[in-house]
Amino acid sequence: MSDRTIKNDLDFAVEFRLVKESGSNKPFKELGSHDGALIPKEDLGHVRLDFKTPKNKDIETVFSNYIQVHTASTIQSKPDYDIYSYHIIICELNDDWVGDDDEDVELIEPNV
Description:
Helix content is about 0%, strand content about 50%. It has about 110 residues and is an all-beta fold. The chain has a five-stranded antiparallel sheet, with no helix packed on it. A four-stranded mixed sheet has the order 4-1-9-6, with no helix packed on it.
């Protein structure tokens, strides 16, 4: 089985969390600029994926390798940051499923 990954290709750091239970106060983890992270197996399944970004910084999120997206980005605007949320299903990945995309979730600069 291949590990599931998140890649930040932005020129600024973000924070992320994968939440399985509604109302969870699971802490955010830092994801540095041009950095990556593995998605732990215990966080696979039907989850909410949140990205906390600096205020007034837009992101585009690309999902690859058999991730089912139930709801597109919703944005919660706070005084110092914004939170982008997605409801997704992310399962273990068989090695033969992987296509040309190495990352499963990738943050990129939006095409404006």
